[in-house]
Amino acid sequence: MTAIQTYEEKLLTLSEGSVHQHFDPWTDIDWDNPDYAIDADDPRWVLPKADALGRSDWYQSLPLERQIEIGLWRQANVAKVGLQFENILIRGLMEYVMGLPNGSAEYRYVTHEATEETHHTQMFQEFVNRSGVDVPGGPRYFRVLAPFLPLAARPLSIVFFMGVLAGEEPIDHLQKAILREGDRMHPLLQRIMQIHIAEEARHISFAHEYLKRNVPKVGKIRKGVLSVVFPVIMRLLGDAIMVPSKDMTRQVGVPKKVLKEIFWDSPEAQDMLSDVFYDVRALAEELDLMNPVSRRVWKALHIDGPGARFRSEPVNAGAKAA
């Protein structure tokens, strides 16, 4: 896509990308490959330092067998919450297209995206099934609200697509960080992440383009409301996706105080929260959703900081200091 393309041309570019570069979990992943077998004692399930829990002193002090146990549970649970979010997204996209008129340029791309997200849910669920770990996915409140969230797709479409970014950006950020780290990892998980990142790039691009097209059309008062709603959605859904729920304490014995420190209270936690929404803050600036009030909200939620200079720019110390 280029800056000089119209919105409709950008959608066509994304749709053609879905036609010519797409994946099917049942043909593009060799599930029966012996190298892809999941062994609960495999040291490659030790969490990488790109994961906040994996780089914590508490986790690194554990015996290898406990690191493996917790690592496999964590990876399987991230996949489960990912498929739960994508289930909500698919239902919301189908609700959204029901309201589109004939000839809408959005219809084709949105249904391409729904198809790809369906494949992702299959891919993630198959990984969870083969892991042998009975993970719950998102926190209880997230699972209770899941049936109702897609209903916002038509009446509150801008808010819905903000929520899309709030769910997609954290997982995309974590998976890219893990792959960039280059640590030895299980090849099945690596293949799943590669496929997911490749297709999520289009999905995130569409959400960005949708908001860039529609937010400028709203009035001043509504834009003021959206400027405050945006960071709140980012933090709430970001936590649901990234932060392990109480089930991690109950099922695998990670102390609550450790999770609180790792994901909420420590300076490293604050850096992680800021980094996850590096791209989104740049989008908020571009949409004129950064104002004195909303900046205070971003800061109060501990997700403030500089914005990326371009989509998917890796976060680095230099950028933070800029």
Automatic annotation (TrEMBL):
InterPro entries assigned to the protein according to its UniProt record, in alphabetical order: AurF/CmlI, Ferritin-like_SF, RNR-like
Gene Ontology molecular function, alphabetical: oxidoreductase activity
Protein name: Diiron oxygenase
Pfam families: AurF
Organism of derivation: Nocardioides marmorisolisilvae
